[in-house]
Input
Amino acid sequence: MHAVEKLKQIRSTWLDNVSERLAQGEVVRENFLGQLNLFFDLLLSSIEGDDPTRMEPLLTEWADASTGVEIDQFYKSNLLPLVNKIFETTNQVASNHLPAVDAIEVIGACFSVYVHAVQHISSQEKQLSVAHTIDKLEQAKTALGRVEKSKSDFISVAAHELKTPLTLIEGYASMLSEMLPKGDGNVQSGLYLKGIADGTHRLREIVDDMIDVTIIDNNLLTLNYQPVWLNQTLSFVRRELLSSIVQRRINLVIKPFPGSDEMLLADAERLYQAFRNVISNAIKYTPDGGTVTVDGRMLSGFVETTITDTGIGIEPEDQGRIFEKFGRLGSVALHSSGKTKFKGGGPGLGLPITKGIIEAHGGSIWVESDGYDEAKLPGSVFHILLPFRKPSSDDKVAKMFDL
Output
């Protein structure tokens, strides 16, 4: 083919010009010269055989050579600009060193090879980019897994290490309280000891939460199923939170709803813990004088309980985050330190523990809110869905539960 012969005539000039344009330094140009010679041979073969696919193996090798010394030193972004420069230089060399008619023929013959090369490179780089992104995501996932495991390990170790000194403080405080003579002169000392007792009690609750979240994270939560009535559980929660309700002037309304007075199988203690966490959370983020309403309904095979508050609400993007460990919202500095005060502080473990308990029962929990606003108080609605498991009608099983 005439174009092939004309290309062979400018080979030496083409090699000099392309290597000069793409590389800096004689050593680098010499290293790259072998690749350029191979490229030129394949270019000739593609034109001669009218088969532009003959360039593909070399282009694929270059695309894969992200760590290759030659390609990486010549063009560190991607392959397409490199090939563009090669073909631009080819056109310039042909125009400058061949008669116009021959130059046009050579450029035209190279054009079809160039178009196919661009398409192939784009496809290869897209695949490599996707593979690279997937690899990076896998690395990030692995790293996050390690961080999460480290976090869980730290929580577990910290909780168990805190239990021993905490028990000692509680024990010595109790002994001091018993040794303290009764009388008006010891009122101040009694207040100090009560402060210690209250502080250690709060700390023990946090330690217990840390242990619970570790158990849930490691899928070690075991449930002790027994007959449970939701209305009784909610009544017990109200009784425990009564002082907070009175102090904050919160109107806690627990409505009788279908399914709340029916017996179902669940872990009574864990279910109580879950409802206490959600209701106390609703109280915490409802301003003084607000209302928290507990209601529900029966669904097919499930009983749904809703806890609705007139509080500050939750932004849509945060409604999943609050169920993550330490997923407290807002600035820590703006939270009060009291457990029952408005926006009272806490480690952010209550709702994650609740989620773990509800899901261990085969249920689910989620929240709905129009957003966060401390002035308009849009409130939040927590939904707790529990499977309606009834005790077996078998007499032996019923006897086990004293039914």
User: Anything to note?
Assistant: The two ends are 98 Å apart (CA to CA). The chain has three domains: 2-141, 155-217, 225-395.
